[in-house]
Write a structure and sequence with these properties.
43% helix, seven-stranded parallel β-sheet, alpha/beta, Rossmann fold
Length: 249
C-alpha cells in the first residue's frame, strides 16, 4: 500500500537467513531485531539457554543454539548441523580485557591478544561452506584502545591487529564478504557489567564530550550491521562507530 508521495520499499533482507553469535543481548540482539524488520529469518546463538530463549521470543527467531563460542569444536558442529545455507553471520560474542599488561600472567596476555582474532578465524573456517555469496561475515572490534594509554597495551595491540586479519579474510573467502565494526563505548549490558557503579558517570561524561553529544546505543550499531549485510560492494573494511570517541581525550 502506498500513500501520496510515499513509495513502499521491499525489506532489504527479505528471504535471507542471518546468524547472530552473541545474539541473546546487546548489539547482537538489537541486530537480530533490525534484521527481522528487514525481512530476515534469524538464528540466535548464545551461552545462556534461558536468556537465549527469552531473546528468541522477543525477536521471533527461527531457531537458537546454546554453546560457548570460544570452543572451536562447538562452532564447527553448529555450522555443520545447519540444515542449509545462510546469508549472513555476525559475531558479537566476547569481551575486551582491560588489564595493565605488566600485571598480566603470560597466559592471560596471550588470551587478551588473540581471543577475538582466533574466534574470527574459527567462525570463518566453519562458515565458509555455509554462507551463500554475496553474503557476509560481520565481526565486532573496537576503537577505544587505538590511542596508547597506560594500562591498555594488550587491548590496543589486539584492536590494531584485527582490521588486518579482516582484510585478509575478505580475500581468502571471496566472494563471501568479510567486514569489521569497530565500536567505542556502546550502552549495553556488557558495558554495565564492566563499569559497574561507574556506568552513570561514564554515560554523563560521554554526553558532554562526544561530538554527537549522546551515548552510542545498540540500535546505532545494529543499523550499521544491517547496512553492511545489504550493501554488496562492502568487503575487507573496518567501520568505526563511536560517536567520535577516539578523537577526544
Amino acid at each position: 500500500m502506498t500513500t501520496a508521495g510515499v513509495t513502499a520499499r521491499e525489506p532489504e533482507l527479505a528471504g535471507q537467513i542471518v546468524v547472530l553469535i552473541g545474539g541473546s543481548s546487546g548489539i547482537g540482539l538489537e541486530t537480530a531485531r533490525k534484521a527481522g524488520v528487514e525481512g530476515a529469518r534469524v538464528i540466535l546463538v548464545g551461552r545462556n539457554p534461558e536468556r537465549l530463549a527469552q531473546a528468541a521470543l522477543d525477536v521471533g527467531a527461527q531457531s537458537t543454539a546454546a554453546f560457548d563460542a570460544s570452543d572451536p569444536s562447538s562452532i564447527q558442529s553448529f555450522f555443520q548441523d545447519l540444515p542449509g545455507l545462510v546469508d549472513h553471520v555476525m559475531v558479537t560474542a566476547g569481551a575486551p580485557l582491560y588489564v595493565p599488561p605488566l600485571a598480566m600472567a603470560p597466559e592471560e596476555a596471550r588470551h587478551g591478544l588473540s581471543d577475538h582474532m582466533v574466534l574470527a578465524l574459527n567462525v570463518a573456517r566453519a562458515a565458509a561452506s555455509k554462507v551463500r555469496p554475496p553474503g557476509s561475515l560481520v565481526f565486532r572490534g573496537g576503537t577505544g584502545a587505538r590511542r596508547p594509554r597506560v594500562g591498555l597495551g594488550i587491548a590496543s595491540a589486539a584492536t590494531v591487529a584485527f582490521p588486518t586479519l579482516i582484510a585478509n579474510l575478505a580475500l581468502e573467502l571471496a566472494p563471501i564478504r568479510v567486514n569489521l565494526i569497530a565500536a567505542g563505548f556502546v550502552d549495553t549490558p556488557l558495558s554495565a557489567a564492566i563499569l559497574g557503579d561507574d556506568l552513570d558517570k561514564r554515560r554523563a561524561e560521554l554526553r558532554t564530550t562526544l561530538p554527537i553529544r549522546r551515548v552510542v546505543e545498540p540500535g546505532d550499531v545494529a543499523a550499521l550491521a544491517v547496512h553492511i549485510m545489504t550493501n554488496t560492494a562492502l568487503t575487507g573494511a573496518t567501520y568505526d562507530i563511536d560517536g567520535g570517541q577516539q578523537f577526544v581525550s
